[in-house]
């Protein structure tokens, strides 16, 4: 308890510690509540003031744990992506084939989009942490598992990188459309958001790769700019599939 006449910052710190009187305020709790708010009302509803009100504190108390709204959004994305199940364990062996592996992973990503349809655009559209990461498979752990899973099933390194590009494009397009049909918001808020003067340095490109040897080895291939080539190849594949369907 603060003494009468205590400085505002001490009152604020006390409020942050009490939160709603039952739980201490932590970054994890703030991110969890932010996800709940986005799930209920969409990304545009997520402001520091709204979130503070849900947690029973003043908005400024949140800045002890998150460095502004951008940092909070990154925390939401990291938490959601971390929830992806990336290791099939004993349920799937390399002998099960690459098709089964890709189907298994696609359904896990789709489950995430269905569980959090209003939050999924954050995963899909926020700038990835490094040029070799592509949404929605945008974490080093997920990409490492993806590349290794394919190479264990007979893919060369070049084939695994090509599959990663093609596969993520498919997931992104389909799941964004599905999220939009479920009410996801893609436009930004119409009014400026209170950032409290916080600054979040953009040093994501310096992510350490020592714990992810496959990504580290293939990073030069993964970050090649192949947008135009990938688009043309995907379009050609689509037309060939349509031609096959029409000829039957």
Explained architecture:
- With 248 residues, the protein is an all-alpha fold.
- The chain folds into two domains: 8-77, Arc Repressor Mutant, subunit A; 88-194 and 203-247, Tetracycline Repressor, domain 2 (Orthogonal Bundle), CATH 1.10.357.
- It has ten helices and no strands.
- The chain has helices spanning 8-18, 27-41, 48-55, 69-82, 98-115, 120-125, 140-151, 157-181, 213-222, 227-247.
- Helix 5 (98-115) packs parallel to helix 8.
- Mean pLDDT is 79; it is low at 1-22 and 188-204.
Overall average residue pLDDT: 79
Overall form: globular
The total domain count is 2
Euclidean distance between termini CA atoms: 77 Å
**What are the secondary-structure elements, in order, as H or E?**
HHHHHHHHHH
Number of helices: 10
The CATH first-level class of the largest domain comes to Mainly Alpha
Largest sheet: none
E-strand count = 0
Q: How much is the radius of gyration in Å? A: 22 Å
Query: Poorly predicted ranges (pLDDT <50, ≥5 residues)?
Result: 1-22, 188-204
Helix amount: 55-70%
